[in-house]
Structures are given as C-alpha cells and as structure tokens.
Amino acid sequence: LNKPEWYLTQVLMWIGNHSKFLDDKIQPILDKAGSSVNAGLEFSRALVMLILEKLAADIPCLLYDDTLFCHLVDEVLLFERELYSVHGYLSSFPSCMHMLSEESCFQRWLTVEKKFALQKMDSMLSSEAAWISQYKDITDVDEMKVPDCAETFMTLLLVITDRYKNLPTASRKLQFLGLQKELIDDFRIRLTQVMKEETRASLGFRYCAILNAVNYIATVLADWADNV
After folding, report:
1. What span, in angstroms and rounded, lies between the C-alpha atoms of 8 and 83?
2. Same structural domain, 173 and 89
3. 159 and 210 share a domain?
4. Cβ-proximal residues to 18 (8 Å cutoff; 6+ apart), any chain
5. Is the pTM of this model over 0.70?
6. Distance CA 40, CA 25 (A)
7. What is the residue range of 222's domain?
8. Is the pLDDT of residue 142 over 70?
9. E strand spans, 10-126
10. For position 145, what pLDDT does the model report?
C-alpha cells in the first residue's frame, strides 16, 4: 500500500517498451483490415483499466491514513501527467482521475489538501523571513516589494490548481475552487491579525509589508481572472 509508484511506473514502462512494436507491427495489420482502432492507445487503455481495479481495491484500505493517502494521490497525479503528455493518452478514455472523483475518495482528498495547506500557511507566517522580500536586493525584479509569505501563499494556490485541473467534471473543480476561496479568506484574517498588532507603527516595516502582500495578491488574482 505504501508503494503505488511500483505498479504505476511498471505500467508506464510497459506502454513505453511496447509502443514501437505496436506501431510497426500491429497497427499496419489493423489499418489493412480497415479498422479505426489505434493499437497503442488500446494497449494503454487496457493497462489503465488494470490500474483502476487496483486503486478500487487499495483506496478503501488507506483512506484514513493521511500519509499513505497523500502519497497515493501524488503518485497518481504524476502518473496521469506522464500518461497524457508522453504517451498521448486520450481524455475520453477511463482515467485514474475518475477514481479520485468518487465521493468518499474525493471528500478525503479535499480534507487532507486543506489540512496540509493550513499547516503550510502556519509555517510560512511563522518563518523569520515571512515579511522580507526574496528579491529585496534586485531592484528591477522587486517593484512590488512582495514579502515571502505572500509569494509562498500564491504558489500554494497555484500548486493546488495544478493538482485538480484535470478532474473530469466541473462540479469537482468548483469544490476545489471553494477550498481555495476558504484559504484566501483564512490568509486575509491572518494578515488582519498581524496588522492589528502593528497599528502603532503604521509606517513600520511589517505594516508596509502587509500592504504590499495585499496589493500583490489582489494583482495576481486579477491576472488569474481569465483562467476558466
């Protein structure tokens, strides 16, 4: 259960190792017979069906172990990325994302995603470098004077988007968007709390850093507004 990468990598190797044989030897036979079947894709589809069976058996066993469950999700997402980008798998075919979209598994995914995101936010705001810009010494890069915590937070949101963007249904994606909105509101509350501590020094370093953080987040969200 703790090594899903073993069978996921094995399947990718089988697909890669057989592609030349399927293209050179099997596809011409299918073409000659007037079939529209793509040998390589059908081979991939059959192997993915095996993975779906394996996941259906494994997921209930690790649903309540956060570490194992997160590791499985991470490995499945890496597998899917390679399957589509390297091996040309079709989005209309069965995929592991359908398995992760099933109710009990999906709700668990949302829960652990939120848990780890909040932990990340705790650590980024308690870091000594939280209010310092990474690029403070490079003037042409650092026009917005973005504090480290704001940049790390937006990267966190971007990573979450990257993880859920290939979900098969819009309703599931919207649930993840809802999580991101919750995280933005949580971050806003945390910034407000820190700002209240700094009101006596409203021209102080940290107070200005908070204003820069808010400006940066608002600007990036406006840039993302065109991303459906």
Report:
1. 10
2. no
3. yes
4. 40, 43
5. yes
6. 11
7. 108-227
8. no
9. none
10. 81
Q: Give the DSSP H or E segment for 218.
A: helix 205-224
pLDDT at 139: 58
Q: Are residues 213 and 121 in the same domain?
A: yes
The structure tokens 């890496």 sit at 78
H or E element, residue 148? helix 148-164
Number of folded domains that form the chain = 2
Question: Any idea what DSSP says for residue 25?
Answer: I
Same-domain check for residues 83 and 126: no
User: Who contacts 39 (Cβ-Cβ below 8 Å, separation ≥6)?
Assistant: 22, 23, 26, 27, 30
Say yes or no: 71 and 127 in one domain. no
pLDDT digits (tens, 9 = 90+) for 61-93: 999 999 999 999 999 999 999 999 999 999 899
- Tell me the two tokens of residue 50: 């095996």
What tokens were used for 150? 């704001």
Are residues 88 and 44 located together in one domain of the fold? yes
Please name which of 112, 121, 4 lies closest in space to residue 65, comparing C-alpha atoms.
112
Encoded tokens for 120: 């990340």
Token match 């937006």: residue?
154
Give the three-class secondary structure for 8: helix
Two structure tokens written together for 23: 């293209």
pLDDT at 198: 73
Q: 71: buried, middle or exposed (CB in 10 Å: 19+, 13-18, 0-12)?
A: middle
State the Cα–Cα distance between residues 153 and 150, nearest whole angstrom. 5
- State the DSSP string of 164-188: HTT-S-HHHHHHHHHHHHHHHHHHH
The structure tokens listed for 119 are: 């932990």
Q: Which helix (H) or strand (E) holds 128?
A: none
Give the contacts of 161 (CB within 8 A, at least 6 positions apart): 176, 180
